[in-house]
């Protein structure tokens, strides 16, 4: 944070430029968000933001792999065992702008440099009331840094890996301009475990880069203008020939925040995304990889806005009135099948979707008691849906489907209360409704993953959530402890449902070979998740420690074509997860040890492919070489745990990133 006086009067009252949104409301604080501050972000042993977040119990990606080796389409984020789908069921926002991909709902994790963030705030639960649709399981809020000075870091790691990042903040144009950039590359590792490899298997190299420009300036006394422009590119290969993928994107946003007598926030943004993805099949014995599909052009874009007022209505009462909208468009152009190395079918799928909503939240504080009520109403729409397929050899149109437009209304709400007791104890509780619109990818695009194939479903309904939670907390001195019991019921969850096994030919997909599975995205009846979350934190002087644990019993309710799933556990949802860290930092010297442990989970909806649990230990340390220069070292997966990330129906298993050593220099 930097204090800047108005240019016209150096002696006038200073104006605080923060680069932040309006403060967290009293209603949101009832849900007790977890906060990762700038110090933790700078000293984490994790390489990327995705791995940093999964160190918090209950935060989960669809795959255990990180953003260097996983397919970008499997990088959705969720909470509270509501997974089973690669699209995010948790809303990720950066400076107020939703970050999930407009076409597929996954997250471009390499676009974010943890050292370029001032804070990460994770709110578990709460529905989709004030944050907006998509926040079924919670919200992850990223806040950019806004400070003067120069920072930089470069580090080299195992397998010819290299990371670099730089950032600078300077006064200009009456405000503060911050510039940051990052880049990473590596030769990667072999994802397939040694016992299952064949001649076709190879390393999975990666390279990515991102840049961000942000200008924050005072406007008219108690208002602040925040303008942002960012871009990223991400290239990965999945450990076989013909499995390269590339994601690109750019964002532009403009936000006006007022902190005067009538606090307000106005935001407008645009997002542009591009994606390419190649898939391969493998011959018997994994002797040779052959291209099976190629998404050669997947353009998508989103435009959105939001507005909020916080009028002062009475002493002890906080009122929020606002609204938001997001309109998305995206199409996948791909070669859907190959013969003798040449594409035989060209496919186009996609459409448009969006939502617009209004909300109101009122919170009253009366001594130790806080009461909060919020309500929201959204209008959603899906249109211009298309699935077209053409035979490249004859030029004949095989399918040309146009789906009718759909729309509807979705009301949601939240009610909560908190009471401060004596001795540092407090109790709180909340009940809420939330919802998520299916992604364009889920609605319109079929896909293949190895020998398995999944068809789209243009008739998918929005997901709806009913949830409640109760928390008992204690805080005194350096300690804070909490225990939260929760119960969530996700209605009409979108899941990849297994319908048949190969060999055979199926709608949209074509031929599925022996050992492969044919699936379709469908709305199940419900997923019920009940559990307990424990969190503790201790800070004293240069020491800090954090421990969290999540125990979640999740169960599928299914009927009709998906009746075989009834009573099973959702795919990719562990029953238990534990995360902990211990850190010490003083005068440029620091050390940080983190541990995350995940229980067993199932790869598939039928619970036939089990992924054993595992524990990963990471370590980071820093030593000052001068007042500004610091030597850093990190070890990811210190014990080289062989934790499985995926397994296919033909028994081929993949692992997470093995032990990786890093040594670097940091300009503080």
Written account of the structure:
It is a single chain. With 668 residues, the protein is mainly beta. The protein has a single domain, classed as TonB-dependent receptor, beta-barrel domain (Maltoporin, Chain A), CATH 2.40.170. A hairpin with a 2-residue loop joins β27 (463-476) and β28. The protein is globular, with a radius of gyration of 25 Å.
Topology:
Layout: E1 2-4, E2 15-17, H1 26-29, E3 34-37, H2 38-43, H3 49-53, E4 59-61, E5 77-79, E6 91-94, E7 97-98, E8 117-124, E9 138-144, E10 149-157, E11 161-172, E12 175-186, E13 206-219, E14 223-237, E15 244-258, E16 264-282, E17 289-297, E18 300-309, E19 317-339, E20 342-366, E21 369-391, E22 397-403, E23 406-420, E24 425-436, H4 440-444, E25 447-449, E26 452-455, E27 463-476, E28 479-491, E29 494-501, E30 504-506, E31 510-512, E32 517-523, E33 526-540, E34 543-557, E35 576-586, E36 589-598, E37 601-602, E38 610-611, E39 614-624, E40 629-636, E41 644-647, E42 653-655, E43 660-667
Parallel strand pairs: 6-9, 26-32
Antiparallel strand pairs: 1-2, 3-8, 4-5, 6-7, 8-9, 10-11, 10-43, 11-12, 12-13, 13-14, 14-15, 15-16, 16-17, 16-18, 17-19, 18-19, 19-20, 20-21, 21-22, 21-23, 23-24, 24-27, 25-26, 27-28, 28-33, 29-32, 30-31, 33-34, 34-35, 35-36, 36-39, 37-38, 39-40, 40-43, 41-42
